[in-house]
Design a protein that fits this description.
CATH superfamily of the largest domain: 2-enoyl-CoA Hydratase, Chain A, domain 1
Distance between the termini: 71 Å
Strand order of the largest sheet: 10-11-12-15-16-19
Structural class: alpha+beta
CATH topology of the largest domain: 2-enoyl-CoA Hydratase, Chain A, domain 1
CATH class of the largest domain: Alpha Beta
Length: 374
Amino acid sequence: MKKQILPLVVVAVIWLLIGWFGRGFFLSEDIVLIERVRQGILTQYDGKPPSSRELTYGAIKGILARSGDPYAALLEPDAAQRYEADFAGESGVIGLFPEFADGKMIVSVVFPDEPAAVAGLQVGDEIVSLDGVLVDSETSLTEAALLIRGPVGEAVEFVVRRDGQLLTFRPVRQVRTIVAAEMLEDGIGYVAQYTFTTNAAEQLTQALQQLMAQQPRAIIWDLRSNGGGSMETAQAVLSQFVASGDLFYVSEKGDGRTTFPALGGGTAVSVPLVILIGERTYSAAETSALTVQESGRGTLIGGTTYGKGTVQATAPIAPDLLVQMTIGHWFSPQGRSIDGVGVVPDIAVTDDPDTEVDEVLQAAVAYIEENVAR
């Protein structure tokens, strides 16, 4: 049954993409050309052709690749399911970040004592495959991230190239920490937030309520190694620290613009605030830090953030398929963009990876002790 309706699905998918790519980017004859090539491969190719569905997916990926959007991706059924779980904050993680360098996907960060480090993965390893799926220049970071993250307690198989040798590692995914909080010495509250998934706002609010019940003299909000997330979550999270006014806005195609104001009723809107940032602070986390800095609500300490100022949307094009693409850009209330430049801290501090001391956190505590009354 699926094979009989697939040509119609192909046309429907292409028409959806036409609407997203500018209402007229393709002409009707383009659709005919795509279908003609697909049918030609299926009926005349003198070899073992891909399946009809594989050709369909390939066509969609080709359209997305030609868009020029580095974040555009087709999420096939397995990846689509992983995305839904990941967006809800339910995925397991291994403590590793990949990046593209010279057309290769390289391990750029491995957190100490996390599953990736325990398994033996190292910074600089070139990722060749993930769970048997080949990784190459056409693999998006979104696809790779969704292969790395997945069900808690299950291993993900890495095949990496190191010093000319192929090595295999199988780190086991562990529960993803969304928010962690504690009271430090001298009445300083500390809360680390690692993502802006849909459950992050509720967890952060609960953590802040527990800290505020202990009447802290200041709060340190740690956004280092925060991968960002949704606009709505950023709005809810920032509203815990900022009492009123616009928090940020998102520019959209043409003259579109959506503004996100403070929601009111925040838990920690008056306590002195210090935010920790660094090169692994991404997207919504960067925008949040910029809003606090621009409004004078708090002080930023650490390093310049990554500089991802784009906003992606992920939409269904079939019951088991999702397409991700860039739909806008983040801006501060005053119109500042972080894209490609990041957020520069008020006080620059570098953490020394060769010491057990967290120099950035240490600098934040020292700043509070010098500038905030007990």
